[in-house]
Structure formats: C-alpha cells, structure tokens
Task: structure prediction
Amino acid sequence: MRRSLAFVSAALGIPLSLYTNGDTAPPAATPPAATQPAATQPNAAPTGGVTLSTVEVRGRSEDLLGIADTSNQGYVGHDEIERRPLLRPAEILEEVPGLVITQHSGPGKANQYFLRGFQLDHGTDFAVTLNGVPQNLPSHAHGQGYLDLNYVIPEVVDDIRYRKGPYFADVGDFSAAGSADIQYVDSLPYNLFYVESGYYGYARALAVNNFTLDRGKLLTAFEYEYEDGPWDVPDRYQKLNAVVRYSQGNEADGFSITSTNVHSQWTATNQIAQRAVTDGLIDRFGSLNPSDGGNSQRYTISVEGHERTDEGQTSVLGWGTWYDMDLFNDFTYFLTDPVHGDQFEQQDRRFYGGLRATHTFFGSLFDRSSDTTLGLQFRDDDINNSLHHTEDRRRIGLIRSDDIDEPTVGVYLENKTQFTDWFRTEGSLRGDYFYFHVRSDKPANSGDVQTAIFSPKLNLIFGPWDKTEFYISGGYGFHSNDARGITTTEVPSTLVPAERVTPLARAIGGEVGVRTGIVPHLNTELSLWGLDLTSEEVFDGDTAETVPSGPTRRIGIEFANFYTPADWLTIDADYAISQARYRHHEAAGDYVPESIADVFESGVTVHDMLYLPEFFGSMRVRYFGPRALTQDDSVQSNSSTIVNAQVGYHVNDKLTLKVDFLNLFNANTNDIEYYYTSRVQGEPAAGKNDIHLHPAEPFEVRAGLEYRY
Result:
C-alpha cells in the first residue's frame, strides 16, 4: 500500500501505541467481564465501577433500557436469524426495522438496499462490517460503497448489531442512514451438516465443524451453492465459500483470527424494459442481453485482540482483503451503439487493509460513572478498475482505466456519563482525513486531492421511568464520493469538460424517540427523525460520468414492536414512513427518485410448543410501498407485498427437516423498478422512456435436511 506508513504518521502526529481497536459496538459499553456473557449488551451505558446485570441477548425481544443510546438501535441474536426464511443471504439484515433488500441483477451481484428515505443503490449510505471488517468498497467499479454480502453464511452468524442515523463516533464513511455489524460465532455447540434443494435448480450444501486446538476454539464452515433461478436464461450461479475462525479467551481477554474466502460466478438477467414484455418481445422472466453476468472473488484475513482491566479496556483489529470482480451489464440495449449494443464491463481489483483500535478509560465525573474512549481507524484501498465497451463479454473498446490509492484515517473521542439515575449522555467528536490519488489513462482525469471533515455527535437519554426511556439525538456524518469523480475534468467518451465531484458529502441528522416495555412482554420503539445531505451527486461507474444533484432533506417516522406473549411465540411488526425531497426547488421537481417511502414488515414465529415440541415455523410479510421514479412524481413504481414461510420438524436431537416457502402466494410483483431511456432494436435512435423492472422471483420451495453431531 503506497505511502501508507508516511501517511499515517503525518496525518496523526501521535504514536500509534496510544490507540487500540473498536468495532460497531463501542467497548465503553461493555460491563465487567464477570457479568458479560458472549454476545451481550450492545452499546451499553457507561459502566466504570458500575456492575450491570447479565443480559442473555438471543433476539430483538430483549429489553435494551439502560443499554441503548438511541431508540433506533438494536440487536438480533442467532436464534432469530436461524428461524427466518431467506431467499438471499443478505436478507438477514431485514431484521433491521425499515430496511428492504432487493435485487435488479444476477444472484452474485451486490443487492439493492433501501432505508430511511434512501435508495441506497448498492450500499452508499449504509455501512456494514463483518467481524469488524468494513464491507463497503469505496471507488468501486460499479458503485460507490458497493456492499456485497452474498458470501455471508447465516448459520454461523452469532448476532447483528444495528444503528440508524449519524450519531455514533465509531462509524464514519457510508453511515449517514445507518450501520450494522455482523458477528460470526467463535464456535457452535454442535457440528453441522446441511443439504438443501429446491425449485429452479437450487442446491446448497454446508458443513460446519468445531475443534479444540491449543486451549482455543477452531470453527470451520464450507459452503457450496448452485442456482439457475426462474429466468429464461439460467443464472448458472455457483458459489464456493469458506470460513475458518480460531479464538482463545473470553469477553474480557482474548483474541481471534478469522479467514473468509469466496468465489462465485453467474449469468445475470438484469432489469428489462416494460414495453418489451407488453409487446411480446420477451416474457417477464426473459432477458434482453443473455450474456450479462460476472464473477467475484474475495479473500480476507483478520486478527482481533482485546483486554480488560479494572482501569479500562483495549481492543485491536487488523485485516487485509484481496478482492476481484468482473461485471457485465447492459441496461440501455442499443441506445448508444446501434450495431454492437450497449453492454459494458466493469472490472475492479484491489487490496485493502486497515487497523481499528480503541482504548476506553473507566472513570468518574462528579462521583458518577463516566467512561472515555479514544479510537483510531486506518484503511488503505489500492485499486485498479476499468470500464470497457463489450459485446457478448468481448472487449471492443476501453472507456476508462484508473489506478487509485485511497488511504483514510479516522480518529474519535467519545464520552459516556451517567449524570443521575435518570439522565445520561453519550457525546463524541470524530475527525476523518482522506487522500485520493488517481492515475487515469487520460491524464486530464488524474490528480491528487486531500480533505478532512469533523463530525460532532450527541445523544441524551432520559429515564427509565415505568420501563420507558426517552432519547434526543443529533449528529454530523458524511459519505465519500468516488475518487474518479473527484479528479475528473473531462468526460472520457466525449472529452467534454466536466465538473469535479465534491470529495465528501456532509450529512446532518437529528431525531427524538422513545423505547418502552410498559406493556408486559412487548417492546416498542418509536422514532421521529430528519436528515439533510449537502449533495447527492455521484460518479456513475456505468458511464464514467458525474450525475449532478442538489441538497436533499429526508424526514420520517419509525415504529417497531417485538412481542413475546409466550416462550413459544414471537410476533414482530415494524412500520416506517419517510419523505425525501430536494431542498432547493428544482425545475425537474422536488422528489428524490426511487427513494423508499413506506415499508411494513411483520412476522410470527413458533417453536418449542408444549404439545408439539418437535414442530417449529414462521411466516413473514413485507410490504414495499410505491416510490417516485421521476423528480416530478409523474411516474411511480408499483407497490409489492411478499409473504415467506418456514415449517420445520425435529426428527430427533440430531436430525431436523426444514421447508421454506418463498413468495408463498406467488405475488406477480417486481423486486425493483427504474424509469429511464433505452432502445430496443428497431426503435427510433433516440430510444424511449420507460419503466425498467426486475420481477420478484415466483413461488418456490426449498427443502433442507440438517444433521447435528
């Protein structure tokens, strides 16, 4: 990684030995080791000399009063993830209330994410870490903040810790809408072999084994998946996936080494023009370019260590990742090139590595518990990406090629103080420094840019009174823009002068909320929030051009409920409504196209029933409301409602049968819709404006057999 050591030294001006690692849940929140079991108490209140009671968090049902810093953060445990029917691995994140995950392409490509009034594209404003390692990829060939979670193995996920809004100091880039940390287990209490088969050529095999090695735990997981999908052109999706994790110690003092490795390849049925279906050119599951698709590889190794004493807590995480992706897409067909077509190839190869470190000082202020955390985060992405014009995956022209080095440093100071029995605060200041080094095949688009940004944040927590807590939160955040857009001065395809993209887009957010457990067995969260972005201009990796955009404002209400009236029954229901508008009245209209407006998600789960203990099952419904597809709201998407279900039977202590029913009622709906200009062969040269859709997969059944030993 070029210039990394000199960069860190110059940017910090302080010895690295003063800092150690943090992950998504701040260590300052952790109670003493004697009371802290595995996977407990995310983001707890300041502790110092205070001993908090043990909380065995296994799902969202747990009461986070006195632990959470806002009304919109939560914790999802292994049991709840295990009982959720899934079409795609990333859908485990739909446990985050208000988050919708869809797809507009093949199964190996990063999903589309929607949250808090955002069409997040492939992840721009939602930051995700896996075992603390950042997953969003800056200056990615396809899209800024590209977030590919197709290689997550749900069976070995221990928990998900999520937060929404720019109110937390330990997350910086890409976190304006929210963030989540997915943690793998150190070990399972059993070995596992699972085979699954279903409609449309779906097949999956998973083997998980646990070993004791040199006083530590060794977990291995190996997965193979194949799928054709319902498409006229089969996906031929293949995924080879492996996790190896070694750990020693406990929550207070220990370390882990984790290796995640995946290789996948596929053919993609991308979104299609609605008129092509209406006119009978193709059916709903047809393709307008059967050679679209891609392949992707990612290999990561990370090392984490932590130590706790009576005076404080230290943790350090370091990682390195090799990533390689080739992606072939054709969204406009014959609009640009009426002879060869508009297919393009995006290639992204990079090595990125980094360090996350924190140290928390346990102390007191006015004889009240007060903990202070110092944090350091460093990352360097060494990238080579390119954009080519292709026909049937054959390169026929280079549009742009770039070598990019993008080192960043983030430092933060955070304090949590319990001023009274009913009032506590969490305040922080974060600073981030970015350096963008771009060497393009066109010298006019090369350059070096450096910039910094500071982000203060404050959470005020009142209560609890009668099992009820109130929150007031405010903070500054940001997302970085693609390095190529930051240095570009001319459009590669036309050599027309182009304005450079602003390096960092500022976000300013605030909200008020309440969390209550006043109704027995029911936990309810209500939040009213707002978020301003100074700009949403982006560098479009599909065309190598900047898409201009003005400042925006989003406001919304979130209402989440988790009800456990009996040990064997769980009911959850979440509703989120939001509005996204441009703040400066624009001639084209004030609506932010494709932004999520409302979503309702609900589920019922039964297990360990008194008279039918062998049976378990769940049913989930998701309503995804209509969205403006144009700035004047003259074209809207359709709404969609999809129901998934799962039924299972424990044959004995070792053998379990499970059947998932996906899109149970065979809803004829779409995963996603866009509105833009394209040209099908035979149409006028200017093309036609139309809705372009990717249909939701129809009803399918997947049956699995699990053997534990």
